[in-house]
Structures are given as C-alpha cells and as structure tokens.
Design goal:
About 45% of the residues lie in helices and about 10% in strands.
Length: about 375
C-alpha cells in the first residue's frame, strides 16, 4: 500500500489558470464513514494552517472519501475507552484529568474555529452522512455545498452528549426554534431543510462535482480573498440544482415553534415527547427525544439560552467545559455503550427522568475548571499582537 494513500487525511493541490492553487483535504476513513479521529484533527489543523499562510493557495476544499459520507462525527470508541480509564483512576473527580477527552475536544474545537475564521474561500462538499463532528467541519466553511444524498443531523442526545462543535452557536441562528428542535430530537435533514436552517449555502448534484473542480481549475484567482469568495460563489451558483420539494423542518415550522416556545424547559420536552402526528418524521423526532438522555435534553436547552449572546469563541470555551463534564458523568459512556458497543439500544440514563435532573446538575456543566487566563481555548478570538 502507498503510505500516502493510507493516511487518515489525504492532501492534494490542483494548479489553476494563473498558477495559484486549490488545496484539497480529503478525510480518508471510508469504512468508518470518515469518522473524525484525533490524528485527523491534527493533520487538518497543520495543513489548513499552512495553506492559510501560503500565498500560492487561493482557496481550499474539504471533502470525504467515497460517496457515503462527508464525516459521521467523532471516533466514539476511543472516547469511551478514555472515559472508562478516567473513571477507574484516582483523578476521577477532576474533569481535566481525562487527558484524551481534553485533547480531543480542545483540538477539535480549535480546528472548527479555524474553519469559521478561515482567511480564504473554504468549500465543504457535504455528500452523504454529515452528523455531529462532521457538522462542525461543514458549517464553518465559507461555501457549504449539500448534495441530493446529504443526511444532516446532530444526534448527540442518543449518546448522552449535546449538540457541540458550536451547535450552541449555529443552531441558535436557525429560523425560529428549529435549532433547538434539532438539538433535542436528532431529526435528520435533507438538502432543502439544510438550506432553510442556514446550515448550507448551495444545493449541487453530486455528479456536478467534477464540473465544479474543472471550473475552479480554469479560473484566474486574485490576490484578494474577498474577490475569490465571490468568484467561488459564481461557480457554485452556475451549477446549482432546483431546490425541489419543501422539507419537513420547513413544512412543520409553525408547529415546531409552538412545541419549543415554552419558557419552562420541562414543558418543551413534554410537548415534543407527547406529540401525536401523522408525519413519521415528526414522530421519529419525538420518540428519539423520549429515549434520549434527560440530562442532555435539559442541558441542550440551557446551553442555547445561556450562550445566545456569546461570541463564537466564548461558545467554544463554554462547550469545552460542558463536554468534559459530560465525559465525567455517567450518561456519555452509557450512551456509547448502548449504541455502539453492546448495541442493545437500551441505555440506563442517570437520572432516568427529566423530573429527577436537578438545577445543580445542569449548572455544573457551566463551571469552568480553569481560571480565565488558563483556559485551553483562551486565545480564540484574540487578535495576534
């Protein structure tokens, strides 16, 4: 096997008309639907940072290997092992002592922030499965393409986590209360609803990908990133497909706003889980929330409410604390066990009901274990001197 082809991320450059280049980063873990490992995060960070500073690179493209997935989220098997090791250690009461979880979430969120603030046009090709950590990669790009095969979701409630990777930021910006509904229910979206929710910018048939690359290669790219962003938008608009039928998120917009519009978080959860409707999409959403972690449900609501006026950098810092607390509490390990290890799909949540989740338990996810000047993500959003 060619060592270059066995790497977890493949990198290539394509020279364009005037000598400037397109940098292509391809997640290369097709068997796991391009699930995101710490190695992949580090490789992406290193190369994308280098390309950002390289005047010869005009724009960057991020894609997944194969046709089945862009990225199916994080490598949860490794995270579960780290959680169990931490739980068995003498430092089990220190959320920072789970070194793998700390490293993974810190470096993942740092990479996601880089994508959101990337100084050059960044094209993400959302084909197939795009869930969890994959959404962190997709939504940060300046040009977010979804194809006819895309399946978007934030399914963390199934495993006792919450919609992280800045989900507390970008879902809050979806129309009405739809972002909260997506965080609570893991509801799956197609291309049309991804566009409606502001999670994508262009709908392009997957078969047109080669055309897009050919047009990028023929283009004369400028020195100015703003000019290049406009040029990339022109290329993508020229190959956009008709939007097609309205998706269920938009169809049920008014109902979703009603369900999620209660001031009391418990009422929000009860309104969704007791819903009776003829649409199977809505009923799957309701049953998913009913079967999900009660702590995750209330935490998801509280995150969107408390962080609604925070900057992107502040959201990532808050989410790092929340994620480490989740890793130290019972539900995340139990959710991964039930879904991916034993596969019995019968998690035993602690606590088992919404009524038993205390305000103190939710508040604990917002108490940073570091002083402000020691936070691992303290430099996000701070201009270089």
């Amino acid at each position: 096997m060619n060592p270059a082809q066995s790497a977890s991320v493949l990198f290539d450059t394509v020279t364009c008309a005037n000598g400037r280049a397109l940098g292509i980063a391809r997640l290369n873990a097709e068997k796991s639907l391009n699930s995101l490992s710490l190695e992949m995060i580090d490789l992406l960070w290193e190369r994308l940072s280098a390309w950002a500073a390289d005047p010869g690179i005009a724009l960057v493209m991020l894609e997944g290997s194969g046709d089945r997935a862009f990225c199916a989220g994080a490598d949860l098997h490794r995270l579960h092992a780290a959680i169990m090791e931490h739980r068995a250690s003498a430092a089990r009461d220190d959320v920072r002592a789970n070194r793998y979880a700390l490293d993974f979430f810190t470096r993942e969120y740092r990479l996601d922030y880089l994508l959101h603030t990337y100084p050059k046009p960044l094209l993400a090709w959302g084909q197939g499965v795009v869930v969890g950590g994959g959404m962190g990669l997709l939504v940060g790009a300046s040009h977010r393409v979804v194809t006819e095969h895309v399946r978007i979701a934030m399914p963390e409630i199934n495993i006792g986590l919450y919609a992280d990777v800045a989900g507390s930021w970008f879902l809050r910006r979806a129309p009405g209360h739809t972002g909260l509904f997506l965080a609570l229910t893991a509801a799956q979206l197609g291309a049309q609803d991804a566009l409606f929710a502001g999670l994508a910018d262009f709908y392009v048939l997957h078969e047109r990908k080669a055309d897009v690359l050919a047009q990028i290669q023929r283009r004369v790219w400028a020195d100015d990133a703003t000019t290049n962003r406009r040029a990339l938008s022109e290329i993508l608009r020229a190959v956009e497909a008709p939007a097609g039928a309205t998706g269920p998120l938009r169809t049920h917009f008014d109902l979703i706003n009603s369900l999620c519009g209660h001031d009391d978080p418990v009422q929000v959860v009860n309104a969704i889980t007791t819903l009776q409707h003829a649409d199977p999409w809505l009923m799957r959403a309701a049953s998913t929330l009913a079967a999900g972690s009660p702590t995750t449900a209330l935490l998801s609501i509280e995150l969107q409410r408390r962080l609604q006026r925070c900057s992107l950098a502040e959201v990532f810092r808050a989410e790092l604390t929340a994620s480490l607390v989740c890793a130290a509490r019972p539900d995340l390990a139990e959710g991964i066990r039930a879904l991916l290890l034993d596969k019995d799909k019968n998690p035993r949540w602690q606590p088992a009901t919404i009524a038993a989740v205390t305000a103190d338990a939710i508040d604990a996810h917002f108490k940073s274990p570091w002083p402000v000047d020691m936070h691992p993500l303290r430099d996000l959003g701070v201009a270089a001197a």
